Amino acid sequence: TVMPAIQFEAPASAFAETVTVVKHYTDRLFMFRMTRPASFRFRSGEFVMIGLPGEKPVWRAYSIACPSWDEEIEFFSIKVPDGPLTSELSKIRPGDTVWMKKKPTGTLVLDALLPGRRLYLLSTGTGIAPFASLIREPETYEKFDQVILCHTCREVAELKYGFEITEAAKSDELVGEEAGVKLVHYPSATREPFERAGRITDLLRDGRLAAELGVPLLNVGEDRVMICGSMAMLQDCKALCEGAGLEEGANSKPGHFVIERAFVG
Ligand code: A2P
């Protein structure tokens, strides 16, 4: 006999949604999409807590990887073999249930930045997730003349999601025309041969990015920056921004750059 699956009821603070798509990129990375509750609103770039149904669910912060107008909700996740959430989450299939807390939040939002000409989106690994949202957000292109999506990973296969979301933005009905002109994808790999090698911090610091893209060095007059990655990456990027005279912003006090730690496990 087959045991009936236990049905857990989601807490009042959470939605229970159905997985629609799962795509694995490497043995460490995957994306999934799920249904969107009608009452759920968020600003592009925000994160939300997600968990799996259970008696004592493990909740983790996940950047929402689709724009605020999307019909579904998308996430881009790491898999940690013994991670309390990701070891289980990486096994989900279409039809499964994922819980999502009702209140999104975060600092990687356009409201936290002062007006500027150029927007740098600096990411490593799964830190690209909030930018998958922002590069498909019309307001991003209303506010900036150029949007430079930087993504550094160890291996080439880890960069694939960035190519896909860039392609999706450029062929999008809503933002495709603007993204086609303004969006630049700037990927680099550090531990495998690739057309561009090195950390984004080095590429910015030594002027390689500026030379390749024909833009001036990072400057407070024109540039605004959003940063998402590991703790060490955030610190280095923050120092780089501050070295160029940029000041950190927040929802309550917009500035020249904002930072947020990528989901870790
Ligand atoms: P590297 O291979 O030189 O360490 P991780 O998996 O350790 O978070 O690293 C993901 C990517 O981010 C790697 O390409 C790594 O480069 C890069 N990286 C790690 N630390 C930093 C940092 N402090 N600043 C910029 N990039 C970093």
From TrEMBL:
EC number annotated for this UniProt entry: 1.18.1.2
Keyword set includes RNA-binding: no
FAD-binding FR-type domain location: 12-111
An MF annotation (GO) of this entry: ferredoxin-NADP+ reductase activity
Cofactor(s) this protein cannot do without: FAD
Catalytic activity: 2 reduced [2Fe-2S]-[ferredoxin] + NADP(+) + H(+) = 2 oxidized [2Fe-2S]-[ferredoxin] + NADPH
Protein keywords: FAD, Flavoprotein, NADP, Nucleotide-binding, Oxidoreductase
GO biological process, one term: heme catabolic process
Keyword Flavoprotein (UniProt): yes
One Pfam family matching this protein: FAD_binding_6
Superkingdom, taxonomy of origin: Bacteria
Family statement: Belongs to the ferredoxin--NADP reductase type 1 family.
Protein name: ferredoxin--NADP(+) reductase
Organism: Rubrimonas cliftonensis
